[in-house]
Amino acid sequence: MTRPLHLSAALDSPGRLDAGHYAALARIAERATLDFVTLDDSFAAAPQRPDALATLARIAPLTERIGLVPTVTTTHTEPFHTSIALNTLDWVSEGRAGWLVGVSTTEAEARAFGRRPVAPADELWAEAADAAEVAARLWDSWEDDAEIRDTATGRFVDRDKLHYVDFEGRYFSVRGPSITPRPPQGRPVVAVPVAAADLAPDASAAGRARVATAIRHADVVLLDAPDRAARLTAATELRLRSGEHLRILARLDAALPDRAAEERLLAELTAAGTGVDGFHLVPAEPERDLAALAERTAPALRAAGLLRADYPGRTLREHLGLVRPASRYAAAPAAGATDSRSLAEVTR
């Protein structure tokens, strides 16, 4: 029996800054039982777009099951702050957060910060890989049962279950531990965009660096490929390099102005031999296209046994069939006795 598709969708709506607009779109996508939605972000001044992470944190209480995956760029941003912000999104959404890793490559963005000059894209993706490694270590730095919250004794945390990450890399030096408890999912789902051309023998340095980041750190790859044959070739190569744990979703334009377009999309979604786990849909007009998806395309896929009728659990990892990772520090031997010092004393 064919496995149900994993589907996601982009909510990007140039010029729309109100959170209510994105909340309405996310609820439509949730009605279609999509795994997650993404929202793009950039440090560029134009086109205007909302802060992706803040917007999805705002709409988290207005949705129930759908995963929320903002683009968060690693350029001009400290990984400690990125990890805390994504951890917060995972808590407010009760385990539905993800992170679409991005970089900033333009001179204008570098000037806006004035902190560093623009760098080559391959260097920025190598830096993004380090940022993802730091974030994962920080999410792991609190063991799952590190919180005590014992009012009678005044003990907030078990100090032996907080760990220094002691990361030393080319771009960052981070001691840790985090200042927030471990996320509900253990680690938010990490997604990396990859193009089929990035896997070609003559791929650019930036493309090779993007693929290396995905292989080391991604739970999900959003794959941009020109056709089915390219999807199959790229997906096969990614699995050979990374293993079967990776979920590969092919980017697919989803302009649905009429029934003929809907039928073309249903044919693309049901085509065999693409090698991917599902599709990341990019609407042309999100309100129109997501409504068509929820009202007609999704029911047709369910009738064909290609889309689940409901969510299998509460977290994004459960939607995607991904295991909840254990903290890499959980098996470390105790270094000292549990004490009742404040969180500030423990983490400074």
From TrEMBL:
Superkingdom of the source?
Bacteria
GO molecular function (one): oxidoreductase activity, acting on paired donors, with incorporation or reduction of molecular oxygen
Annotated Luciferase-like domain residues: 17-251
Q: Which UniProt keywords apply?
A: Flavoprotein, FMN, Monooxygenase, Oxidoreductase
Coiled-coil stretches, from where to where?
Answer: none
Q: Does the keyword Cell membrane apply?
A: no
Positions annotated to bind FMN = D41, T71
**Does the UniProt entry include the keyword Transmembrane?**
no
Q: Which SUPFAM superfamilies match?
A: Bacterial luciferase-like
Q: Which family does it belong to?
A: Belongs to the NtaA/SnaA/DszA monooxygenase family.
Q: Which protein, by its recorded name, is this?
A: LLM class flavin-dependent oxidoreductase
Organism of provenance: Streptomyces sp. Y1
